[in-house]
Amino acid sequence: MSETNQETLEQPPIKLVMNQLPDANVPFESPLHHVELTKIAEHSGSQGGVVFRELSLGLLTLRCTPNAEQAASIEGILGVALPSNPLTSITSANGELTVMWISPDEWLLQVPQDKAFELESRFFAEVSGHVSLVNVSGGMTVFELSGNDVVKVLKKSTPIDFHDSEFPVGKVVSSIFAKSGATICRTSEQTYQLVVRRSFADYLWLWLQDASKEYGLTVMG
Amino acid sequence: MSQKNRLQDGGRIDRSKPLTFTFNGDSYQGYAGDTLASALIANGIDVIGRSFKYSRPRGFVAAGAEEPNAVVQLGATEATQIPNVRATQQSLYQGLVAASTNGWPSVETDFMGLVGKLGGKMMPPGFYYKTFMFPQSMWPTYESYIRKAAGLGRASKEKDVDRYDKMNQHTDVLIVGAGPAGLMAALSAARGGARVILADEQNEFGGSLLSSKETIDGKPAMDWVAEVVAELNQFDDVMMLPNSQVNGYHDHNFLTIQQHCTDQFADRAPNGAVAQRLHRVRAKWVVLATGAHERPLVFGNNDVPGCMQASAVSTYINRFSVVPGNELVLMTSNDGAYQTAIDWHDAGRHVVAIVDARKNPQGSLIDAARERGISIMVGSGVIEVQGSKRVTGVSVAPLNDVGDKVTGAIAKLKADTVASSGGWSPVIHLSCHTGARPVWDDEAIGFLPGPTVQKQLTAGAINGVFTTHAALSQGLQAGADALAHLGLEATDSSVPTTEDVTQGKAMALFHIPHNKPTSKAPKQFVDYQNDVTAAGIELACREGFESIEHVKRYTAMGFGTDQGKLGNINGMAIAAKALQKSIPETGTTIFRPNYTPVTFGAIAGRDCGELFDPKRFTAMHAWHVARGAKFEDVGQWKRPWYFPKDNETMQQALNRECLATRESVGILDASTLGKIDIQGKDAREFLGRVYTNAWAKLAVGKCRYGLMCGEDGMVFDDGVTSCLGEHHFLMTTTTGGAAHVLEWLELYHQTEWPEMEVYFTSVTDHWSTMTISGPNSRKLLEKLTDYDVSKDHFAYMDWKPMTVAGVPARVFRISFTGELSFEINVQANYGMHVWNALFEAGEEFNLTPYGTETMHILRAEKGFIIAGQDTDGSVHPFDLGMPWAVAMKKPFSFIGKRGMQREDCVRADRKQLVGLKTIDPNVVLPEGAQGVFDPKAPIPMPMVGHVTSSYWSACLGRSIAMGFVKGGHDKIGEKVYYPLADGRVVEAEICQPVFLDPKGERQHV
Amino acid sequence: MFHIFCPHCGEYREEEEFHAKGEAHIARPLDPDACRDEEWGEFLYFRTNPRGIHHELWVHAAGCRKFFNITRNTQTYEILEVYKLGEMPSVVAE
């Protein structure tokens, strides 16, 4: 394992940033691993009104009330400024990084899985003052829903208003989803991401299959 | 039977689409466009059910939601049974199967009918309570008999095969009712650019226009409706919901709509389709265009089949092309009802007479009736009808000017149908749901919607205006008003032209007097569904019930599933007369949700079966299932309870798991424990404030157990918190308490101590946590890591970062079993890999998976508490015998400190947690058993505390228990007795709650 | 079902996203140890429970997880204003 801080154990690190990625031969199991989406995808038609896939991303929770200096160093690391308007998100030019507003002092960062540790390390080294960045990649997963009937399924699941006038592309909300919760982001005209907790993933997968039934569900492996 | 009452042509039915259906076992035919009610009337069915209390035959009264009698059981198969369906609102479909809900053993020959007939006078209000309550022991017998006889419909005995669903909707304007007012409001709002939902209970939009011969803009009214509907369909932001009953109006303009999707067309929904959908609507503005229900008049035997609302008769003739009889007597207090006699006459059947309570009615409708040669008896009323299963004749008598006395000789006429109209009651139900009190209006002779705080507009007959012109113009205005409120602009729209007739003044008449006193006259029904009569209401008033709310409860008026839609105003008028007050002085009861009965399916939606409650799984769940684990619910988590092998009993499995752990090594999936990442320079101080013990000196790399209390000093959670860095901690909480603890920390940070620099982030799901416990756990861990985990390098209550089975891990040397233990935490995406690797490496040590029950036993052997099992919100750390976990000298007055020092909390005789050893080591005390000091004390014995945890300990070969005993900490060695429900008294010795390894040597190896 | 404006998210949300946390402006005594039992009991248990204007603490539990205050009429259920912690209500009982 690697650590940014190579102090000895007799003198433990002040703040430990831990690369949580294992050896290459250790299998990655997403929260829906047991469902075997790839197998389902082989038998799922392509004509469904709703299209589902699970995205495996590096996810980090940033807590901060940035002062000017912090804002500058964070922008330096991310390449984009933290979205300060409530319920907005921003994606970097190369599409690798998305930052979602969660709360006035909280953002969710999405990066490729192998970039999480690098991001943590740079925050640790470059952002001073009161800030907390926590790797939550194992605790959440991302469901991507798209298709002509996607909004109907969302309306069955959460009390949010998805009308174009109220929910433009880029908007992000955290809300009730079925009997669990989700952070919902509209990533394109007809595509929505749901960031959900790992332990609820199976329940929400059952829920979404059932809610999509009348429109047809296409699963992507 | 042929459709003997069906007319040759006309109506909104499709004669090219005949439909076959079954009622009470007999097969009939109707047409597409029929309701079940119109099809039954077409076939000459008079008796649809039996009444609730007197079991009298009952027929159709109305043609819509207000129908009190024609409430049927629907369903062709057991699995598709739906009770409480109003035949007047159910569209006919091919193969529909319906049955009467009232009537046992059958509608035609009814057993209770005898009681009703014999007992007519013997069954006043309160009859069941007064008669059947004694002897009390017999009530269950009476009740089941009465219930069966009353026949309120039944639920299916099988699982409902249909799918139900809910959908959340948002709109600028929700319009309730698609009659002329609602349609006009929708058109106006939609043209102005608003988001609109238009909902109507009927299968077609049009409301009153569906059964009217009027013209609008010079065209038949329904042509105008078709044009409006076509235009509304062009708007993307207009949602049209026919077959949809707006059933509840709740705070802040939240309304529920029950949409019948397929159950109006088929017994069972086609595969995948949803039978009913409940729309949960948040509307910026609501327009109530709910119309009005015609009020029938109250007279003797007015429940005999053939007695109907005048407007319902017109609806059946004009909309469904069905005439519900041959010989009509129409009784009215107003001009409008004359239209019914005209419709009847024009349908080619005989109008015996129009009986008008007014002395000198004048108006164009009266002229139209006269032109047709219809005889009009003015200043008169139908005081009673003859017949039992169908009206055979009527008695007409002259009335005085105010209509409360019979003034002359009684004439008898032959008739089979009596249509009556006492005017119209605005449908104010939804406006009442949010608490608005209705207001009486003398002009409208009815209650109107009262003042409200909701963003609510009203249009049409709900406002007591009963012409189509008024409905259209108020609808247009409501649409414009809604637009103005929304900041939108109305387009130029004008009120369509109508040819409304002028009508004379109506008379306020509710109850037709009889020549005998009300109490001696034939029954005059006010509330058909609950068999409430005019005599019953007068009796209630005589017995001293003066408040209308009391009268309602005494007589059960308005308590039926129809909520007294037809009867309530008549009942209030009768009560007012009896109390010699005006109707507004008497007051009104208000209506509550729901407007009509809603199926449980629609309420439950898809929150049933597998989706009833979320099941939360750890990353190793599939392994547990494959290994045959029995599961326990902890919050929403499914945790392995125990892992039986072969044919083991639960106790055998537990014994094996306990012994294997203490002798070699066991493993527990502890991933469900709540975990909170805490960072910031004030994190340490914050911990000191929310935990009862000291945190100032916990070094990096160290772990510590803490108790969390409320301000009252009572323990609500516990767990181990580890210092990851000087300003960085990982807190663990109980599985069930995780969400509450996180909110608790945020509450105090945000409200009390916002200046503290600390952030909390839930990482419960992020880490897979597997605890290996037992003397061989170190050897097992050594096989999977290069890290030095020896005693000297990795001490008890330390944590170390290391790689386990190729995965970076945080390993905590903490123990809940009293054995040498390592809690391995890895990112959950790799949890299964590490778990598998542990089993591969653990084979030589007989690595044994154990569940929550063995965990409970192992910790109880050590006297460790479980928050929520050994605590119940009324015990503080000293009660638990844990003074070592409280640092009273901390500089900040931590949460719970002041509370646990209150006078009551420092009593010596508080219930205190102790160990309990039964004198007979083979007896396991039941958890929850109450202890006493003197088992010979007279009952009720003074109870001194209950057993909180009790198990068979295979390791100790005896039972062990923990529990509360008054002053128990000073009673070590004394006896306490547990008298059990089965008569046994179990004797136990009070002891220290540490049964195994009191010095804690095993965990320190 | 209330419709509640979250002052942090800046829009109306359904009640099911929120948790009610009781009466607002109940500050923890600065020196609990100096409180008499009655004073501590007052702080712990006694609330005004008014008919009419009431100031309440709520948390946007399923949303931004921020606490804030609501002024609500307990008779009509109207929400008269929402305001952030540290701010004082502008609508108060007479």
Explain the overall architecture.
The complex is a heterotrimer of chains A (221), B (1005) and C (94). Chain A is an alpha+beta fold. Chain A has helices at 37-43, 68-78, 116-126, 150-157, 201-212, and strands at residues 50-55, 58-64, 89-91, 98-103, 106-111, 131-135, 140-146, 172-177, 180-188, 191-197, 217-219. Chain A folds into 2 domains: 33-56 and 141-221, 2-Layer Sandwich (Gyrase A, domain 2); 58-136, Alpha-Beta Plaits, CATH 3.30.70. Chain A is built from 5 helices and 11 strands; from the N terminus they run αββαβββαββαβββαβ. In chain A, α2 (68-78) runs antiparallel to α3. The radius of gyration of chain A is 19 Å and the shape is globular. With 1005 residues, chain B is an alpha+beta fold. Among the domains of chain B are: 14-132 and 145-150, Roll (Ubiquitin-like (UB roll)); 163-292 and 426-486, FAD/NAD(P)-binding domain (3-Layer(bba) Sandwich); 296-422, 3-Layer(bba) Sandwich (FAD/NAD(P)-binding domain); 518-590, BFD-like [2Fe-2S]-binding domain (Arc Repressor Mutant, subunit A), CATH 1.10.10; 909-1005, Aminomethyltransferase beta-barrel domains (Elongation Factor Tu (Ef-tu), domain 3). Helix content of chain B is 22%, strand content 27%. In chain B, α5 runs parallel beside α6 (221-233), α5 (180-191) runs parallel beside α11 (468-486) and α18 packs across α23 (852-861). Chain B starts with 13 loop residues before the first strand and ends in a 14-residue tail after the last strand. Residues 116-120 of chain B have low confidence and may be disordered. With 94 residues, chain C is mainly beta. Chain C has a single domain (3-84), classed as 2-Layer Sandwich (Folate-binding fold). Helices cover 10% and strands 35% of the residues of chain C. Chain C has 1 helix and 6 strands. Chain C has one helix spanning 37-45, and strands at residues 3-6, 11-14, 19-23, 53-59, 67-73, 79-84. The mean pLDDT of chain C is 97. The chains are: A alpha+beta (221), B alpha+beta (1005), C mainly beta (94). Chains in contact: A-B, A-C, B-C.
Main sheet of chain C, how many strands, which sense, barrel? 4 strands, antiparallel
pLDDT averaged over residues of chain A: 92
End-to-end gap of chain A: 31 Å
- The CATH class of chain C is Alpha Beta
| Tertiary shape of chain C | globular
Strand order of the largest sheet of chain C: 3-4-5-6
**Topology, number of strands of chain A:** 11
Oligomer: heterotrimer
User: What's the helical proportion of residues of chain A?
Assistant: 10-25%
Structural class of chain A: alpha+beta
Rough shape of chain A?
A: globular
Tally the structural domains of chain C.
Answer: 1
Unreliable runs of chain A: 1-14
If helices are DSSP runs of H or I spanning 4 or more residues, what is the number of helices of chain C?
1
